[in-house]
Amino acid sequence: MGVRCSKSSFCCWHSSLKPSPHDFSDLENGGENGKNAFPGFTEFSLDVLMIATDGFSADNIVSEHGEKAPNVVYKGLLENGQWVAVKRFNRSAWPDSRQFLDEAKAVGNLRSERLANLLGCCCEGEQRLLVAEFMPNETLAKHLFHWDSQPMKWAMRLRVALYLAQAMDYCCNKGRALYHDLNAYRILFDQDGNPRLSCFGLMKNSRDGKSYSTNLAFTPPEYMRTGRVTSESVVYSFGTMLLDLLSGKHIPPSHALDLIRVKNLSMLMDSCLEGDFSNDDGTELVRLATRCLQYEARERPNAKSLVNSLVTIQKETEVPSHVLLGIRHGAATPPQPLLLTTTGEACLRKDLTALHEILQKNGYKDDEGIANELSFQMWTNQMQETLNSKQQGDAAFRAKDFITAIECYTQFNDGGTMVSPTIYARRCLSYLMTDMAQEALGDAMQAQVISPEWPTAFYLQSVALFSLGMENDAQEALKQATKLEAKRSKN
């Protein structure tokens, strides 16, 4: 069945290492005090990971990426009671098993409480899996961009910046300076509310795969020129993370730098932080972000310099992270999986055929109540032509002639005499069927504008976003659709 790891080897170090945010000396594995503090790297059998993830059940999916990053992350429960995150690569991502194993072992040699550490891997047959510590308290993106009860406090934002810089510095000192696609979804919070850098970004998504899968507006300039990641590229991405922490939004670096140049910092800062920080602190973080975002890579600071700068501006250093983050303390259980409806499951699978059947079956019932004020002249002069376009589009949609459906539905929309969210939904799916995901996203968003509480609009947005490789946004749209459908079913 594979190697069994003792429970104590996973857990014992959690309680023994509780340094302050300033003290990073005991967080590494390798010194005399910390030599045996962390569990070693394990080669897991496929059977063990199959059991842990319930056969890689869709219910256990934590995140899923599109064509640019072909992999899925599952949560899993080992026999010893430990939760883990299991990253499963596309079969073609790492054809050479030895190369994958060597790379995984190199990352697995890193051990720090600033990382969500890599515990092991599986390399049986065509399977390529990584096993890491599971972080139960969501991502930085969730707490910073999609918070429910309170915005992230200034002191916590500073701590996130420091811990991330310390993680980068640790990796640099251990010869692993390259980190692929650093963003707010790569920062995870452990059971104590401390931010950790995901170890998954220390490996590329494939042997030859692209290192950056986010919006190109956030990609380091030199990567755009050469397609290669350098340690300076990672510092640039760290600068975009500082902008996230300052603004509470994922703001493009070019726009932020324009605001900084004209000294319009009020437009850059998160309005939710008003009165929570001093101008000097804000100015210092802006200065650091600007240095990291220099166009010339050689002009950016190194990780050690960033740590030194961030240590001096930390606030409320004696307050535990879980208090600053506003979460319950202790080993939280993983979040309950999203209970998807039939439509939601089809969206997650990108099963366009199933979605076509659902839209066809639902017809136009969700257009009821949409205001369409038509003058008598419109009825007499334009309505017949508009209705003809709709009927022809519906016939083509039914027959799966999606090119014709697009043409007819476009004619209907251009007529301007009526608005129909269903028409936009059907044209959206027709665009998806013809590999026009960007146009599909536009139609799904237009359907949402017409019917803000319509689950179908959000479902279709999720499929379009999945198709565009925008995994995290797609997951958020899928969650919103599920919530709206659940709300509908209660009414």
From TrEMBL:
One of its GO terms (molecular function) is kinase activity. It comes from the Eukaryota. This is Serine/threonine-protein kinase bsk5. It is found in: Cell membrane. Residues 59-325 form the Protein kinase domain. It is a lipid-anchor. The gene is BSK5_1. Signal peptide: none annotated. Its main location: membrane. The lineage of its organism: Eukaryota, Viridiplantae, Streptophyta, Embryophyta, Tracheophyta. InterPro entries: BSK, Kinase-like_dom_sf, Prot_kinase_dom, Ser-Thr/Tyr_kinase_cat_dom, TPR-like_helical_dom_sf, TPR_BSK1_C. It comes from Datura stramonium. Belongs to the protein kinase superfamily. Ser/Thr protein kinase family. Keywords: ATP-binding, Cell membrane, Kinase, Lipoprotein, Membrane, Myristate, Nucleotide-binding, Serine/threonine-protein kinase, Transferase. SUPFAM superfamilies: Protein kinase-like (PK-like) (SSF56112), TPR-like (SSF48452). PANTHER family: PROTEIN KINASE DOMAIN-CONTAINING PROTEIN, SERINE/THREONINE-PROTEIN KINASE BSK5.
